[in-house]
Specification:
Blueprint: H1 6-21, H2 25-45, H3 51-72, H4 74-84, E1 89-90, E2 92-98, E3 102-106, E4 109-122, E5 128-138, H5 149-170, E6 173-177, E7 184-188, H6 201-221, H7 223-231, H8 235-263
């Protein structure tokens, strides 16, 4: 295996922190999936020389992708927990009531909106009970003023009210009960992606913008090299070029969609 550079060590540390803040099971999923891919690759394509390096790359990429899904996808979190905890009972939701929200600000800029909620449900014995919790959405924080504070506030209010209305009307909340000690686990929403529920929202947006700037500048200064890799006979260079161009286009599209979204307000 290639020598661990400070970059790879930092990447592993970041990955471990993200997993620790979410679920240790993601580490296991990444390991199993990466191991199976390497074994199949060696069995069918007889690529043994770089299998250890291939495993490391696959493990980092797959585990990081799973961590992003777990952090920002309510549907992924729900089904991951439901499949990994088959004995926990999915409880029936009777009603969801929302209380008046309160706003948190940092440096005259809106930071988050939180609404206390009261959930009425039936436990495993069909006894009706209530549980109090809260629903929060986080705004894009800009460390310096650009004159868009009202736009950020209007946008966050729209996101929060829409999500809250869906939760109350459609009862988009899931409660799981542990059959042993009757512990309750709560999952909100049914969206494929809901970035604003997580404090990592800021990190994700800054990372997205940073990746776009990095890939764009790299494409400008190394255009001939990257284009040459796409036509190279070496499959690793060709595959790397395809991945790089795909990453640039993906970050470009996502940043454009983000700008269009905020222009609505």
């Amino acid at each position: 295996m290639k020598k661990l550079t400070p970059y790879r060590v930092a990447l592993l540390v970041l990955l471990i922190i993200i997993i620790a803040l979410n679920s240790v099971r993601l580490f296991l999923y990444g390991f199993i999936i990466s191991f199976m891919i390497v074994i199949l690759d060696r069995a069918f394509f007889n690529k043994r020389k770089k299998s250890d390096y291939q495993f490391y790359n696959l493990f980092v990429v797959i585990t990081f992708a799973l961590s992003l899904f777990y952090t920002f996808s309510p549907v992924f979190r729900y089904w991951e927990f439901k499949i990994s905890h088959p004995k926990w009972k999915d409880l029936e939701i009777v009603s969801v009531q929302a209380q008046p929200f309160h706003v948190k600000q940092i440096d005259q800029q809106i930071s988050s909106i939180t609404s206390p909620i009261v959930v009425t449900y039936k436990d495993s014995k069909q006894t009706q009970k209530t549980i109090q919790d809260s629903l929060s959405h986080y705004s894009l924080y800009i460390p310096f003023s650009l004159g868009y504070e009202q736009t950020l506030k209007d946008e966050l209010l729209f996101i929060h009210n829409r999500s809250l209305d869906n939760m109350v009307k459609k009862k988009e909340i899931h409660l799981f009960e542990n059959p042993r000690n009757h512990t309750i686990k709560t999952f909100y929403g049914s969206d494929v992606f809901a970035l604003r529920h997580s404090r990592w929202f800021h990190f994700a947006l800054y990372l997205l913008f940073g990746l776009f700037v990095f890939t764009f500048l790299n494409l400008v200064f190394r255009f001939k090299t990257i284009m040459g890799n796409l036509k190279d006979a070496n499959e690793y260079k060709r595959f790397g070029g395809i991945i790089y161009i795909s990453l640039f286009l993906l970050t470009l599209v996502l940043n454009v969609l983000l700008v269009v979204h905020y222009l609505r307000f």
